[in-house]
Design a protein that fits this description.
The chain contains 6 helices and 5 strands. The chain is an alpha+beta fold.
Length: 195
């Protein structure tokens, strides 16, 4: 309610400053604070569960059920298809070798993390996108190490905000164009069982 009143005030102020403008101009400097809070909570809740259970490889059925309330229907379907493709490949290949899904899909194809260090809106790429910094915590001294980052894109689906994709960074400032959905697509070796 308060946010809509603030937005209305900005519209009125914008129209007053521009005089008799044929079309009102809305001055919005950033994502509304309550939206950032809501979307950040989705990301934080998701990663709190995922980081405490993620042991690498495709997420287990149990982990997928736990994080399902935070993931879009399309992303859940991608996880399910990848799991089925991997199971089919492993069953039908006499010596399948390592899986295509050896990394930590919610963090990075290569490394895992244990803690979120920050969640910030990142509209440089698109609306409803967040830059999320993660790290691991040393069991020896409790200090953070190995910082990494992901870009999380949310969509509004079924009346709530859900994670629709997670993009990996090669380092904390260089985003990769590929993300979790691309990672979940089976390689040609997993699409075709060995004969």
């Amino acid at each position: 309610m308060l946010n809509s009143m603030i937005c209305s005030a900005w519209v009125l102020l914008g129209c007053a400053c521009l005089g008799a403008s044929p079309a009102p101009v809305l001055f919005v400097s950033s994502t509304p604070p309550d939206l950032v809070e809501t979307q950040s909570a989705v990301i934080k809740n998701f990663y709190t569960i995922a980081l405490s259970h993620d042991r690498g490889g495709l997420p287990s059925v149990a982990l997928t059920k736990k994080v399902a309330p935070y993931l879009s229907k399309g992303l859940l379907e991608s996880i399910s298809r990848a799991r089925k493709a991997e199971q089919l490949f492993l069953k039908s290949s006499p010596d399948p070798g390592p899986s295509d899904y050896e990394g930590y899909p919610f963090v990075s194809p290569g490394e895992g993390a244990t803690r979120i260090t920050s969640i910030k809106p990142d509209q440089k790429y698109s609306a409803n996108t967040y830059y999320v910094e993660l790290c691991s915590i040393s069991k020896k001294d409790g200090k953070p190490y190995d910082p990494m980052a992901v870009r999380v894109r949310l969509i509004f689906e079924s009346g709530r905000w859900l994670i629709d994709d997670i993009y990996y960074y090669q380092d904390t400032s260089n985003p990769s164009p590929s993300g979790l959905r691309a990672y979940l697509k089976p390689s040609s070796s997993e699409k075709q069982p060995a004969k």
